[in-house]
Amino acid sequence: MSLLDPLFRQHLDRLDRRHTRRSLLPVHPEGAGRIRRGGRTLLNFSSNDYLGLASHPLLVERAGDWTRRWGAGATASRLVCGTLELHAEVEAKLARLKGTEAALLFNSGWQANAAVLPALFDRELLGAEALVFTDRLNHASLHHGCAAAGVRQIRFRHNDLDHLETLLAQRAGEPGTRFIVTESVFSMDGDRADVPALAALAERHGAFLYLDEAHATGVLGPRGMGLAALGGGRVDLAMGTFSKALGGFGAYVAGSRALCDYLVNRCGGLIYATALPPAVLGAMDAALDLVPTLDAERARLQAMAERLRAAFHGLGIATAGSSTQIVPAITGAEENALALSRRLEERGILGIAIRPPTVPPGTSRLRFALSAAHTDADLETLMSAVADAWSPR
Ligand SMILES: Cc1ncc(COP(=O)(O)O)c(C=O)c1O
């Protein structure tokens, strides 16, 4: 019993009444694209394992091999004695693939965004308050980084670069370094930012461009290494994760050598955290070997997503601006999302309901995420289950 339990319970009851209470439900992986939950095997359309790499033998083997050779933990933070040769090797491999001077590993995508943004918005570095332009649908970790830095976000309408340009022009006379912070693929809508246009905007307004590639890394762009490459060298910082299409865990920042060296000296989330362990680095290294070879899987993934969107549109289901492997089915009300999710589970499909505050009120949805590990038959099963469950008798 804790002192605050009555308040916690009150809060949870309020969430119950609004259909927005969440809980943790253990699952057991049953091979790529499937999980067991509550004694039943379900087709899993809710994971971010877009290439099926989480269970790939090469990742599993290298994670085990590096653990046996290097131990279970890194034993210290990067700046103390936690930088193993393995960190440097993975960072060099990543920078080569991203086509940047340098790369830096972080313990998670959340931690990278939450810690890197405050380091960049540092008044001592910039000499004035940063002017930070952010997409309204940016991920919670990007908001957290801005909040931790104490900056006021200047929010532009989702993916509306005309609006962004207007906001930049309105503040043209004000002092302070401009930052544009956005995602290349939006996690809940599955749509893409126009990276070449963003890069041109950043160039015109002398702004630093920060691109979160969490859902593009492994899936889109040349050799699957994300959309930052389309920015013609004008993306100042690309962050991404190893926790989604790359099948493992951890995150990265890719950019100039000076940027990475600065973060090593100024970024609290890197300085004051224990370095990633050898198992995680082994999985990262194997994923980086595999990803450039998976063009056929990426093409198939996008073709499956196209079929799913067409099927949803045929049923009158809105899919927001999806043009990637993430295909939302917008239900609007929270209880409708929960009810659809339950009906799909009865039909052997895991499609998790996403509700506020993860998405704006009135836009609750089932977020379907496809994986190259899904078979054509899996996709057919999903499409007919949704057709059956969407308008319950
Ligand atoms: C856009 C975006 N950025 C960052 C993150 C955080 O990454 P991680 O799960 O590696 O902490 C996520 C994960 O949900 C995300 O969707």
Automatic annotation (TrEMBL):
Annotated function: Catalyzes the decarboxylative condensation of pimeloyl-[acyl-carrier protein] and L-alanine to produce 8-amino-7-oxononanoate (AON), [acyl-carrier protein], and carbon dioxide.
Subunit and interaction comment: Homodimer.
Cofactor(s) the protein requires to work: pyridoxal 5'-phosphate
Pfam families cross-referenced by the UniProt entry: Aminotran_1_2
Organism of derivation: Azospirillum argentinense
Pathway(s) the chain acts in: Cofactor biosynthesis; biotin biosynthesis
SUPFAM superfamilies: PLP-dependent transferases (SSF53383)
Family (UniProt): Belongs to the class-II pyridoxal-phosphate-dependent aminotransferase family. BioF subfamily.
NCBIfam families: bioF (TIGR00858)
Molecular function (Gene Ontology), one example: 8-amino-7-oxononanoate synthase activity
Keyword Cytoplasm part of the UniProt annotation: no
Top-rank taxon: Bacteria
EC number: 2.3.1.47
InterPro entries: Aminotrans_II_pyridoxalP_BS, Aminotransferase_I/II_large, AON_synthase_class-II, AONS_Archaea/Proteobacteria, PyrdxlP-dep_Trfase, PyrdxlP-dep_Trfase_major, PyrdxlP-dep_Trfase_small
UniProt protein name: 8-amino-7-ketopelargonate synthase
Residues annotated as domain Aminotransferase class I/classII large: 41-385
CDD domains: KBL_like
Keyword line: Acyltransferase, Biotin biosynthesis, Pyridoxal phosphate, Transferase
Chemical reaction(s) catalysed: 6-carboxyhexanoyl-[ACP] + L-alanine + H(+) = (8S)-8-amino-7-oxononanoate + holo-[ACP] + CO2
EC class (word): transferase
